[in-house]
Amino acid sequence: MKVSHLLIAASAAFCLPAAAFAQEAPAAAAAPNLAVGGTIYDAQGEEVGTIDSIADTTVVVNTGTNKAALPKTSIGSGPKGPMVSITKAQIDEQVAAAAGKAAAALDAALVAGAEVKGKAGTPVGTIKEVKGDLIVLDRTGGAVSLPKKAFGMGPQGLYIGMTAAELDAAAKKALGK
């Protein structure tokens, strides 16, 4: 008798529609609606900032204090709109930490004898002297002083945002020649 109950239960199970066994797949998360000028929120629904620009894989968010490049994949959809998992304060802290690290790396590289390249990637001179926020470049046409903020660090080391020819023209103009 027990065997017949088991066979009846088994045959009844095979007769049920397949849908009864199927599990519904979770709905795919809706892609966030990203548009320049749109607002980004955190997980608590607080405003993080506005979208400043959008590139292939990056969204630049302006928090009002800083601009931060966030990967598109880090932005989801929330009840109010596009959402990230970190707060405005956390983004601002991360940007400040990165800026501090970059400033320290620049300070460490700004030393006498260091080669400086122009925006074309070619050498424009070497650092002759560092006088506080003024950097003296030794060049074949003579020394040129530039503010520290004119320098940056790139994959090839120190650089300025001018070619050698542009630097020469700017130096001549500054001297009234």
Q: What this model shows, in words?
A:
It is a single chain. By secondary structure, the protein is an alpha+beta fold. Helix content is 27%, strand content 31%. It is built from 3 helices and 12 strands. β3 (58-62) and β4 form a beta hairpin. Residues 1-23 have low confidence and may be disordered.
Share in β-strands = 25-35%
How many strands? 12
Q: What oligomeric state best describes the polypeptide chains here?
A: single chain
- What is the averaged pLDDT score? 84
Characterize the largest beta sheet: strand count, sense, and whether it forms a barrel. 4 strands, antiparallel
Strand order of the largest sheet: 1-2-3-4
Report helical residue fraction. Answer: 25-40%
Decide which structural class fits the backbone: alpha+beta
- The SSE string, one letter per element, is HEEEEEEHEEEEEEH
**What is the rounded distance between the termini?**
113 Å
C-alpha-based Rg, rounded? 30 Å
Low-confidence stretches: 1-23
Shape: elongated
SS field, number of helical segments: 3
Keywords:
4-stranded antiparallel β-sheet, elongated, 3 helices, alpha+beta, disordered N terminus, 177 residues
What is shown here, in short?
The chain has 177 residues and is an alpha+beta fold.
SSE topology sketch:
Blueprint: H1 2-15, E1 39-41, E2 47-54, E3 58-62, E4 67-71, E5 76-77, E6 82-83, H2 88-109, E7 115-117, E8 123-131, E9 134-138, E10 144-147, E11 151-154, E12 157-160, H3 164-174
Antiparallel strand pairs: 1-2, 2-3, 3-4, 5-6, 7-8, 8-9, 9-10, 11-12
